[in-house]
Design brief:
Blueprint (H helix, E strand, L loop, with lengths): L8 H8 L4 H7 L4 H13 L9 E4 L8 E6 L4 E6 L9 E6 L2 E5 L5 E4 L6 E3 L9 E5 L5 E6 L13 E4 L3 H5 E6 L9 E6 L4 E6 L6 E2 L6 E7 L2 E6 L4 E4 L8 E5 L9 E6 L5 E12 L10 H6 L3 E14 L4 E5 L5 E5 L5 E4 L10 E4 L4 H6 L8 E4 L4 E3 L14 E3 L13
Parallel strand pairs: 23-25
Antiparallel strand pairs: 1-2, 1-28, 2-3, 4-5, 5-6, 6-7, 8-9, 9-10, 11-12, 12-13, 13-14, 15-16, 16-17, 17-18, 19-20, 20-21, 21-22, 23-24, 25-26, 26-27
Helix pairs in contact: 1-3
């Protein structure tokens, strides 16, 4: 039988570049020719730019090295096998450009691309300003000293000492990337304790650089080469991390006195800065077989859950150094959680709901203090202040808490990392 003519590779790549990740992976497994086009596309990074965010999670029904990926575009779950250390044993403290930032059982940090399986070790946790290694008789790190000071205050003169696996419970809050590590140069920024301070590392660095004196940071983004960092009272500071001497400038003064809400900053679809405030309501989960007790005990028994109750959106006005509340996102969509905060245009993502907020649980005290409690994950309608579940029944384990991920099939250019 005469063999059918193969489609030219350049045409295949052009078609594949328009596909969402699940379809792209399926196409790459059809035959040798299609796999070659898929591999070439991933190596050059010319895949579809508007990938719909997915929910990355672990599940009790899968192997310790496997993660679930729930596609909002297809409303379907997939399973990914990831490199060691096992994903179920890691904390996920950030998600940017298709990579997640994780803390392993020694409280060491890694970048991981769940789609390609590529992984990058970050500078040792012992190079963070407030962390010092404790060595055993054989010269091996066995514990960490954690010093309680910021650039402004000494909270305690005496350090706490933690086992290797427990430092991450108290140290890490959230992490961010300045750009896609697949392309070479990038910065990693940490919000870490005590009191939510900032440290950063450039690609290839062997240590973290501390950014005193301020603290109580809540969210960060990179815009036009600058780091924008927002505090719990709405202040926004900017930093040029590429400068020889990094200095901080005030972009926005404080806009509130108290911090009951969690705050996010995100770049809008027209380039403007938005400040998002998110509030929770604590709900009781009744169990007729249990008698009442104090809140601490009930939380310990999964008797209460924190649900997102209100989301308010503000536009930052740099000239007046004020924020203005806006009643609607229009055709825009927000993604909030341990991911880099995102604002997408619904017309480019037909599977997403305009004027809605897709959220995951990222309350530091709640997620690290009560790991067995049900996670707050859903879609919030800004028009009627109501939320709905992503999928029923729940697919994910409560810990590590799930995170939004924009799938990135681009493979690292090793030459750019040498």
């Amino acid at each position: 039988m005469e063999k059918s003519p193969e489609m030219p590779q350049d045409i295949l790549r052009r078609i594949f570049a328009t596909l969402e990740i699940p379809d792209l992976v399926r196409a790459g497994s059809v035959c040798t020719s299609w796999h070659a086009a898929y591999t070439s596309l991933c190596n050059t990074g010319n895949c579809r730019l508007q990938q719909t965010p997915c929910l990355l999670y672990t599940s009790e029904s899968t192997d310790a090295r496997e993660a679930g990926l729930y596609s909002l575009a297809e409303k379907k779950a997939y399973t990914l096998t990831l490199p060691d250390p096992p994903i179920c044993s890691r904390y996920i403290i950030g998600s940017s450009y298709g990579w997640i930032i994780t803390a392993d059982e020694r409280s060491e940090l890694h970048l991981l691309n769940p789609i390609t399986g590529e992984q990058i070790a970050l500078p040792s946790v012992t190079t963070i300003e407030q962390v010092k290694p404790v060595f055993d008789d054989k010269g091996v790190v066995c514990k960490y000293e954690y010093w309680w000071y910021t650039g402004e205050d000494v909270i305690s003169d005496t350090p706490s000492v933690y086992p290797l696996s427990e430092l991450r419970d108290v140290l890490f809050c959230k992490a961010f990337l300045s750009s896609d590590p697949s392309t070479g140069g990038y910065f990693v920024v940490l919000i870490h304790n005590p009191r939510c301070q900032l440290s950063f590392a450039r690609a290839g660095n062997d240590k973290w650089t501390w950014l005193p004196p301020h603290s109580f940071y809540e969210d960060c983004l990179f815009k036009e080469g600058l780091l924008y960092a927002c505090t719990k009272i709405g202040e926004i500071h900017t930093f040029n991390l590429g400068a020889l001497a990094v200095t901080q400038k005030v972009f926005l003064d404080e806009v509130k006195d108290l911090y009951f809400e969690r705050i996010y900053i995100v770049q809008g679809s027209c380039g403007e800065l938005l400040q998002i405030w998110r509030s929770d309501a604590v709900l009781r989960v009744d169990d007729e077989d249990e008698s009442d007790s104090d809140l601490e005990l009930e939380l310990d028994r999964d008797k209460h859950v924190c649900n997102t109750s209100t989301v308010t959106v503000h536009k930052v006005e740099p000239a007046s150094k004020k924020i203005v509340e806006i009643s609607s996102l229009g055709q825009n969509v927000l993604f909030l959680g341990h991911n880099q905060s995102l604002c997408l245009h619904a017309e480019e993502y037909p599977q997403l709901k305009a004027n809605h907020v897709y959220f995951t649980d990222d309350d530091y005290m709640y997620t690290t203090g009560f790991k067995n409690n049900r996670r707050d994950i859903g879609v919030f309608d800004l028009e009627n202040n109501s939320s709905e579940e992503i999928t029923t029944p729940q697919l994910w384990c409560n810990w590590p808490t799930p995170v939004w991920l924009i799938p990135n099939p681009r493979r690292m250019n090793l030459a750019s990392h040498n």
